[in-house]
Specification:
The chain contains two helices and five strands; from the N terminus they run H-H-E-E-E-E-E. The chain is α+β, with helices and mostly antiparallel strands.
């Protein structure tokens, strides 16, 4: 590959970075503090512990009034250290959620 050709993964990375920048601008324009907080969580990594002991780690896509959570690019782990199982897009019913942790390293500033 010549130096003039762009690798498709480079183009994808640039697109992701551009989308993150646009998302940060949208969050900054939000006036409702609760909506602003929720929007700042979008596309961030969530670690959800469930009542049956499973742990799901994935990117936060959305939630609803019943506290159901949808994660994308999700992997499942067990408490006793079992192998990772890739699930993809999942919906977790709110009644089965014990705890949620957010990867704050990439969190958009909501102040």
């Amino acid at each position: 590959m010549s130096s003039d050709e762009k690798d498709s993964s480079d183009e994808l990375w640039e697109l992701i970075q551009e989308q993150k920048f646009i998302h940060k601008e949208e969050v900054a324009q939000e006036t409702n503090p609760s909506r602003k907080m929720l929007k700042s969580w979008l596309n961030n990594t969530f670690r959800i512990k469930m009542t049956d002991g499973r742990i799901l780690i994935g990117m936060f896509v959305c939630t609803d009034a019943d506290a159901n959570v949808i994660l994308g690019l999700t992997s499942e782990f067990t408490e006793n250290g079992g192998e990772e199982r890739v699930l993809g897009l999942v919906m977790i019913p709110g009644r089965y959620i014990v705890s949620i942790e957010i990867d704050e390293a990439n969190l958009v500033n909501v102040n």
